[in-house]
Protein backbone atom coordinates (compact mmCIF):
# COMPACT_ATOMS: atom_id res chain seq x y z
CA UNK A 1 0.00 0.00 0.00
CA UNK A 2 3.00 2.29 -0.06
CA UNK A 3 2.06 3.50 -3.53
CA UNK A 4 -1.10 5.13 -2.11
CA UNK A 5 0.54 7.14 0.68
CA UNK A 6 2.36 10.35 -0.31
CA UNK A 7 6.10 9.98 -0.90
CA UNK A 8 8.67 12.70 -0.34
CA UNK A 9 11.46 12.40 -2.93
CA UNK A 10 13.83 15.19 -1.87
CA UNK A 11 15.30 16.43 1.38
CA UNK A 12 13.71 19.81 0.71
CA UNK A 13 10.26 18.18 0.55
CA UNK A 14 10.84 16.48 3.90
CA UNK A 15 11.92 19.78 5.45
CA UNK A 16 8.89 21.57 4.01
CA UNK A 17 6.52 18.87 5.25
CA UNK A 18 7.90 19.25 8.77
CA UNK A 19 8.07 23.06 8.65
CA UNK A 20 4.75 23.84 7.00
CA UNK A 21 2.35 21.75 9.10
CA UNK A 22 1.13 23.90 11.99
CA UNK A 23 -1.83 22.02 13.44
CA UNK A 24 -1.18 18.33 12.89
CA UNK A 25 1.50 15.79 13.76
CA UNK A 26 3.74 14.89 10.84
CA UNK A 27 4.34 11.12 10.78
CA UNK A 28 7.21 10.08 8.53
CA UNK A 29 8.06 6.47 7.73
CA UNK A 30 11.69 6.22 6.64
CA UNK A 31 12.67 3.02 4.85
CA UNK A 32 12.23 1.16 1.55
CA UNK A 33 8.94 0.31 -0.15
CA UNK A 34 10.21 -3.19 -0.98
CA UNK A 35 11.23 -4.09 2.58
CA UNK A 36 8.83 -6.59 4.25
CA UNK A 37 8.93 -4.68 7.56
CA UNK A 38 8.04 -1.44 5.78
CA UNK A 39 5.29 -3.21 3.86
CA UNK A 40 3.63 -4.24 7.13
CA UNK A 41 3.98 -0.76 8.57
CA UNK A 42 2.73 0.84 5.36
CA UNK A 43 -0.36 -1.37 5.47
CA UNK A 44 -1.16 -0.10 8.97
CA UNK A 45 -0.40 3.52 8.07
CA UNK A 46 -2.56 3.30 4.95
CA UNK A 47 -5.46 1.75 6.83
CA UNK A 48 -5.51 4.57 9.40
CA UNK A 49 -4.87 7.32 6.83
CA UNK A 50 -7.61 6.45 4.35
CA UNK A 51 -10.59 8.76 4.27
CA UNK A 52 -13.24 6.26 5.31
CA UNK A 53 -11.30 5.13 8.37
CA UNK A 54 -13.32 5.42 11.56
CA UNK A 55 -10.37 6.70 13.59
CA UNK A 56 -10.23 10.15 11.90
CA UNK A 57 -6.43 10.34 12.07
CA UNK A 58 -6.47 12.82 9.18
CA UNK A 59 -7.79 15.46 11.59
CA UNK A 60 -4.66 15.44 13.77
CA UNK A 61 -1.91 13.79 11.70
CA UNK A 62 -0.48 13.66 8.19
CA UNK A 63 1.54 10.65 7.04
CA UNK A 64 4.43 10.63 4.56
CA UNK A 65 6.87 7.99 3.30
CA UNK A 66 10.56 8.62 2.57
CA UNK A 67 12.92 6.20 0.83
CA UNK A 68 16.22 6.33 2.74
CA UNK A 69 18.25 5.45 -0.37
CA UNK A 70 16.58 8.10 -2.53
CA UNK A 71 16.77 10.73 0.25
CA UNK A 72 19.91 9.96 2.33
CA UNK A 73 20.04 13.47 3.83
CA UNK A 74 18.53 12.41 7.16
CA UNK A 75 20.16 8.99 7.63
CA UNK A 76 22.97 10.27 9.81
CA UNK A 77 21.03 13.02 11.57
CA UNK A 78 18.19 10.72 12.71
CA UNK A 79 20.31 7.53 12.85
CA UNK A 80 18.21 5.73 10.26
CA UNK A 81 20.00 2.39 10.31
CA UNK A 82 16.94 0.16 10.71
CA UNK A 83 14.96 -1.15 7.73
CA UNK A 84 11.84 0.70 8.86
CA UNK A 85 11.64 3.79 11.07
CA UNK A 86 8.64 5.94 12.00
CA UNK A 87 9.25 9.39 13.48
CA UNK A 88 6.92 12.12 14.71
CA UNK A 89 7.19 15.90 14.32
CA UNK A 90 4.98 18.73 15.57
CA UNK A 91 5.49 22.38 14.67
CA UNK A 92 9.01 21.80 13.38
CA UNK A 93 10.09 19.82 16.46
CA UNK A 94 11.00 16.16 16.67
CA UNK A 95 8.73 14.49 19.22
CA UNK A 96 10.35 11.93 21.50
CA UNK A 97 8.26 8.93 22.54
CA UNK A 98 8.84 6.34 25.27
CA UNK A 99 7.53 2.92 24.30
CA UNK A 100 9.69 0.99 26.74
CA UNK A 101 12.36 -0.03 24.23
CA UNK A 102 15.06 2.41 25.32
CA UNK A 103 15.02 4.26 22.00
CA UNK A 104 12.89 7.35 22.55
CA UNK A 105 13.44 8.87 19.11
CA UNK A 106 11.46 6.57 16.85
CA UNK A 107 9.54 3.36 16.24
CA UNK A 108 11.84 0.96 14.43
CA UNK A 109 9.63 -2.11 14.09
CA UNK A 110 6.45 -2.89 12.19
CA UNK A 111 3.28 -2.36 14.16
CA UNK A 112 0.43 -4.64 13.19
CA UNK A 113 -2.36 -3.23 15.36
CA UNK A 114 -4.13 -0.24 13.80
CA UNK A 115 -5.71 0.89 17.05
CA UNK A 116 -2.34 0.86 18.82
CA UNK A 117 -0.81 3.04 16.09
CA UNK A 118 -3.75 5.45 16.25
CA UNK A 119 -3.34 5.59 20.04
CA UNK A 120 0.36 6.45 19.73
CA UNK A 121 -0.27 9.17 17.13
CA UNK A 122 -3.13 10.62 19.18
CA UNK A 123 -1.00 10.61 22.34
CA UNK A 124 1.83 12.36 20.49
CA UNK A 125 -0.65 14.95 19.22
CA UNK A 126 -2.27 15.59 22.60
CA UNK A 127 1.07 15.81 24.40
CA UNK A 128 2.68 18.07 21.82
CA UNK A 129 -0.35 20.35 21.56
CA UNK A 130 -0.63 20.64 25.36
CA UNK A 131 3.09 21.39 25.69
CA UNK A 132 2.84 24.01 22.96
CA UNK A 133 -0.05 25.73 24.76
CA UNK A 134 1.89 25.62 28.03
CA UNK A 135 4.92 27.28 26.45
CA UNK A 136 2.74 29.97 24.90
CA UNK A 137 1.14 30.74 28.29
CA UNK A 138 4.53 30.87 30.01
CA UNK A 139 5.79 33.26 27.33
CA UNK A 140 2.77 35.53 27.75
CA UNK A 141 3.12 35.55 31.54
CA UNK A 142 6.78 36.42 31.28
CA UNK A 143 6.32 39.45 29.01
Structure description:
By secondary structure, this protein is of the alpha/beta class. The chain is built from 3 helices and 5 strands. It has helices at residues 11-20, 36-49, 114-142, and strands at residues 7-8, 25-31, 61-67, 84-90, 93-95. It is globular, with a radius of gyration of 15 Å. It starts with 6 loop residues before the first strand and ends with a helix.
What features would you highlight for this structure?
nucleus; alpha/beta; 3 helices; Thioredoxin-like_sf; mRNA splicing; Glutaredoxin; globular; 143 residues
Shape: globular
Mean pLDDT across residues: 86
Structural class, judged by helices and strands?
alpha/beta
CATH superfamily: Glutaredoxin
Helix content: 25-40%
What count of structural domains? 1
Main pleated-sheet profile: 5 strands, mixed
Total of DSSP H or I helical runs spanning 4+ residues: 3
Which class in CATH terms?
Alpha Beta
Which architecture name does CATH use?
3-Layer(aba) Sandwich
Strand numbers in spatial order across the main sheet:
1-3-2-4-5
Order of helices and strands: EHEHEEEH
Strand content: 15-25%
Task: Catalogue the unreliable spans.
Answer: none
Gap between N and C termini, in Å?
Answer: 49 Å
CATH topology type: Glutaredoxin
**Gyration radius from CA atoms, angstroms:** 15 Å
Short account of what is shown:
The chain is of the alpha/beta class.
Question: Which helices and strands, and how do they pair?
Answer:
Layout: E1 7-8, H1 11-20, E2 25-31, H2 36-49, E3 61-67, E4 84-90, E5 93-95, H3 114-142
Parallel strand pairs: 1-3, 2-3
Antiparallel strand pairs: 2-4, 4-5
Subcellular location: Nucleus
Function: Plays a role in pre-mRNA splicing as component of the U5 snRNP and U4/U6-U5 tri-snRNP complexes that are involved in spliceosome assembly, and as component of the precatalytic spliceosome (spliceosome B complex).
Organism: Microcebus murinus (Gray mouse lemur)
Amino acid sequence: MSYVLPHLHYGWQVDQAILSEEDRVVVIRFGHDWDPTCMKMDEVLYSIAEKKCCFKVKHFAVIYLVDITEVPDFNKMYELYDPCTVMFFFRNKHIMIDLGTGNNNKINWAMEDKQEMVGIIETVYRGAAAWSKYLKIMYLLRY
